[in-house]
TrEMBL record:
Ranges that cross the membrane: 52-73
Ranges for domain Peptidase M48: 122-305
Name by which UniProt lists this protein: Metalloendopeptidase OMA1, mitochondrial
Cofactor(s) this protein requires: Zn(2+)
Lineage: Eukaryota, Metazoa, Chordata, Craniata, Vertebrata
Recorded family membership: Belongs to the peptidase M48 family.
Subunit annotation: Homooligomer.
Residue numbers spanned by region Disordered: 396-418
Length: 418
């Protein structure tokens, strides 16, 4: 029987640590309440007399803790950003093996065969990304393998050991192979940047420090009900102040690095912002409830599109240095913007409900004289195999929304780049 990896062991012990802190704080409160008044007065005097000794002890403890954290600083691959890593990549690889085994067992009945065109499409995309980015050690030393799960869930993820899981719902949400490669690049970036280990390290340190707060809350609150409320408020503040902002920061970094991975693989990186505009448009048209960004672990679709749009010039410069074929002159961002504008105009004329509050995507100018296709998201359910130098493109409808007009625009995407 193999030992549990350190990150998994920490996750198992995490609830027990919190329970012990609650019991300790509650015991201190009951002990203090049970003390006679004269004993309490003596305790106050004792603390006042030794306050400087206690402050010095606290200072030394904080200094030791800071030095300990400094010894676990690590430089992030690709970006060079300094971050805290309590758990090593090797320890997380052990956890990734267990996680991948669990996922393969969970999705065993839903996995597409390797001969399926959708699986082959994703396989070729991943291998192209890996081959074109083999100058990055974290990419070249990982054996990338693909598993396509038949599910309507719009999701994809990559484990640190190179196991790529893509749901067919995601293949229906991307408009073309360029968007697919940008999505895969984003997920691969999470893996090569060790974001799971980094996030777990921060969570581990914050949770250990918060045990002091948990003990203090249960010791100082006059009743259990108030202590429970204080603990809940503490958890929510930790999420809003540390966990959610840090998670959004890692998502933005994965967007940037993933866009560069896709650029080196000769994808049309201009399709990246369009993908998030599509998801934003679908949410608006279908009326899907969305959380404010500050309550979410991910940036909003609109902010994500805007941030990626600002990264496009740098990604295009990188693409030009990689001996890639020239991009078509028509910018997919402009095509999408024009199509959505025409959709909204038609919806206003015909009184289609559900589109009144839809925001138009930011327009991108196109060279004069270039016709912009109105059928930006050409519908098809088949996989079109391109030439041997390109991975195949997938086209399948995005979720349909208000009426025939919206369904026409939310069809999957143009093949301008093919």
């Amino acid at each position: 029987m193999r030992a549990l990896p350190a990150p998994l062991l920490w996750m198992v012990l995490k609830p027990l640590q919190k329970l012990l802190a609650i019991l300790l704080g509650r015991s201190l409160r009951k002990w203090w309440v049970a003390l006679p008044d004269n004993r309490r007065q003596l305790m106050h005097v004792w603390f006042r007399r030794r306050r400087w000794h206690l402050a010095a002890g606290l200072g030394v403890t904080l200094l030791i803790l800071a030095l300990l954290l400094l010894t676990h600083l690590d430089e992030s691959p690709v970006t060079g950003r300094l971050r805290l890593l309590v758990f090593s990549r090797e320890k997380y690889m052990e956890l990734a093996v267990l996680t991948s085994e669990a996922h393969l067992e969970e999705f065993a009945e839903q996995l597409l065969p390797v001969t399926d065109p959708l699986h082959q499409m994703v396989e070729q995309s991943v291998q192209l990304l890996a081959q074109r980015n083999k100058d990055i050690p974290e990419v070249s030393k990982v054996p990338w393998s693909v598993h396509v799960v038949e599910s309507s869930q719009i999701n994809a993820f990559v484990l640190p050991n190179g196991k790529v899981f893509v749901f067919t719902g995601m293949l229906g949400a991307v408009a073309d192979v360029d968007q697919l490669m940008i999505v895969l690049g984003h997920e691969m970036a999470h893996a090569i940047l060790d974001h799971s280990a980094e996030q777990a390290s921060l969570s581990h340190v914050v949770d250990l420090l918060s045990l002091i707060l948990v003990t203090a809350i249960w010791a100082l609150c006059p009743g259990d009900s108030l202590a429970l409320l204080g603990g809940w408020a503490k958890d929510k503040l930790m999420e809003l102040m540390f966990n959610h902002p840090y998670s959004r920061k890692l998502e933005a970094e994965a967007d940037q690095v993933g866009l560069h991975l896709a650029a080196k693989a000769c994808a049309d990186v201009r399709a990246g912002p369009v993908f998030w505009q599509q998801l934003d448009l679908v949410d608006q048209v279908t009326g899907s409830p969305t959380l404010p960004e500050w309550l979410s672990t991910h940036p909003s679709h609109r902010n994500r599109s805007g941030q990626m749009d600002r990264l496009i010039p740098q990604a295009l410069e990188l693409r030009e240095t990689c001996a890639c074929p020239a991009l078509p002159p028509i910018d997919p961002r402009a095509v999408f913007s024009k199509t959505v504008h025409e959709l909204l105009e038609k919806a206003k004329e015909q009184g289609v409900r559900g589109l009144e509050g839809t925001h138009e995507p930011q327009s991108v100018s196109t060279p004069a004289g270039l016709a912009v296709s109105q059928n930006v998201l050409a519908s098809s359910s088949k996989v079109d195999w391109l030439n041997k130098d390109r991975v195949p493109a997938v086209t399948s409808p995005l979720p349909a929304a208000a009426g025939k007009e919206s369904q026409h625009v939310l069809q999957n995407t143009s093949q301008q780049g093919s």
